[in-house]
Amino acid sequence: MRVLAVSGSLRRDSHNRRLLAAAARLAAGVEFTVWDGLADVPPYDEDLDVEPAPAAVAQLRAALARADAILIATPEYNHSLPGALKNALDWASRPFPANSLRGKPVAVVGASTGMFGAVWAQAELRRVLQAAGAHVVDEELAVPSAHEAFDDGGELRDAASSSCPVMTARASRWAVSPEGSRPRRTSSRARGCRPRVRADVIRARTRGRGRAASRARGA
Ligand code: FNR
Hints:
- This protein has helices at 15-26, 55-66, 83-92, 119-132, 146-149, 159-169, 195-217; strands at 2-7, 31-35, 69-74, 105-111, 135-136, 141-143, 174-176, 183-185.
- It is globular and about 45 Å long.
- It is an alpha/beta fold.
- Helix 3 links the parallel strand 3 and strand 4.
- The protein has one domain: Flavodoxin domain (Rossmann fold).
- It has seven helices and eight strands, in the order E-H-E-H-E-H-E-H-E-E-H-H-E-E-H.
- Helix 3 (83-92) runs parallel beside helix 4.
- Ligand FNR binds next to helix 1.
């Protein structure tokens, strides 16, 4: 399975990049690629949104199309997602509705130095992704106090305690089962207080898609 990971931060020492690196180490058996082209994407301009698309945009769309699932780690800027990330997703949402995000499983996580772990940015990011037609998985991971959350090796010091308070506050949320069948209520623990759960969720959600793709390729 191919996972494309996107950091919403351009910063060299970004905590969100660190979060993706930690996720990559958990993703055994998964082709995990971090997309590094965010800084090259031009401001969205409908006049430029023609074929051929600007090179950075074409690369983004191709990378999204090739992925079986997408993992986005977003910082929070002024209670919202960073402009560069929103801009890239505006490009990715076109042409509409047949864009490279449509029906694609996407998991959203976030780290911020504030108390809440970019929860507002994550919520807005989810809305943008849903508007573009992506299948946004319900499970969440918020890493507050990100400047204290990682050890020198880049591992989350205590993933459970750093993310559980926010998740517990949302314990009444409904979660859709991996099969996409009946909604069921889950506890905060089952909904994923550890980043490990997110990798499992993505795997479970895309297993069927992967098998279908293999069949289509004759594998
Ligand atoms: C922030 N930061 C921030 N944090 C937060 O929890 N809520 C917020 O609304 C904001 N707003 C905000 C605006 C701007 C312009 C900046 C530069 C920063 C702090 C932010 O979460 C922190 O800098 C993170 O470390 C950024 O993520 P990366 O770059 O470490 O991945």
